[in-house]
From TrEMBL:
Occurrences of domain FAD-binding FR-type (ranges): 2-105
Name of the molecule in the record: ferredoxin--NADP(+) reductase
Similarity remark: Belongs to the ferredoxin--NADP reductase type 1 family.
Superkingdom: Bacteria
UniProt keyword annotations, A-Z: FAD, Flavoprotein, NADP, Nucleotide-binding, Oxidoreductase
Organism: Bradyrhizobium ottawaense
């Protein structure tokens, strides 16, 4: 258990029947870069039961925040969804992950493309002042099946817009693009299709995909993480990693979860 820190749950909020978020205390020694993930979980029968979770909180915040799906028969999430204030969770002492700006070649527009709980690392990144220093525009796209599943993302973005410090900073830089596939909504369709057709860029009133200026981060469903990299690669975009920055990066840690 020495690889994990015990933290206390501070709050829990259930957004839908299948989505919830929670905050917990943060050990002063726990360091991470915005966009990274850590192993978190619960002690079950004396043993740690852990899964990879992106920090939805920024590295300058005192508390940790996580955004999770509820899987009724999931080994961890079937238990984790029942936590309440005062409960103890385990947090790994080391953070890692590819969704960090250092893995990208410098550019002008940053596209953060997510589905479902893949929004979590980008909730962290859009709270990073350096991101706004390094890019002229940040586009946060979040795809879900139903409108209700957008609630957490809307809450995060609204909080930033009303924030004393971030409000003025993001006003002209952050573009939030929620889209759904199964209900009427102002934006409809899969992110993959909206990128391929150029509809997403038309909807936000910006230019189409440009390898010279666009840098991209991806986190979400296996289908999206298969289709979009193939599309980008076909257009000459190169995937980046810790040793060689590129035009786009993918978080693969959650694909098998």
């Amino acid at each position: 258990m020495s690889a994990f820190q015990k933290e206390t749950v501070l709050s829990v909020r259930h957004w839908t029947e299948s989505l919830f978020s929670f905050t917990a205390t943060r050990d002063p020694g726990f360091r991470f870069q915005n966009g990274q993930f850590a192993m978190i979980g619960l002690e079950v029968e004396g043993k740690p039961l852990m899964r990879a979770y992106s920090m939805a909180s920024a590295n300058h915040e005192e508390a940790l925040e996580f955004f999770s799906i509820k899987v009724q028969d999931g080994p961890l999430t079937s238990r984790l969804q029942k936590i309440s204030e005062g409960d103890i969770i385990l947090v790994g002492r080391k953070a890692t992950g590819t969704l960090i700006t250092g893995n990208l070649i410098p550019g002008k527009r940053l596209l953060l493309l997510s589905t479902g709980t893949g929004l979590a690392p980008f909730a962290s990144l859009i709270k990073d002042p350096d991101v706004y220093e390094n890019y002229e525009t940040i586009v946060l796209a979040h795809g879900c099946r139903q409108v209700s599943e957008l609630a957490y993302g809307e809450h995060v973005v609204e909080g930033l817009r009303n924030h004393e410090f971030f409000g003025p900073l993001i006003r002209d830089k952050l573009v939030y693009y929620p889209t759904v596939t199964r209900e009427p909504f102002r934006n409809r369709g899969r992110i993959t299709d909206l990128i391929a057709s150029g509809q997403l860029f038309d909807d936000i009133g910006q230019g189409s995909l440009d390898i010279e200026t666009d840098r991209i981060m991806l986190c979400g469903s296996p289908a999206m993480l298969e289709e979009l990299p193939a599309m980008f690669s076909a257009r000459g975009f190169v995937e980046g990693n810790h040793s060689q920055p590129g035009h786009f990066v993918i978080e693969k840690a959650f694909v098998e979860r």
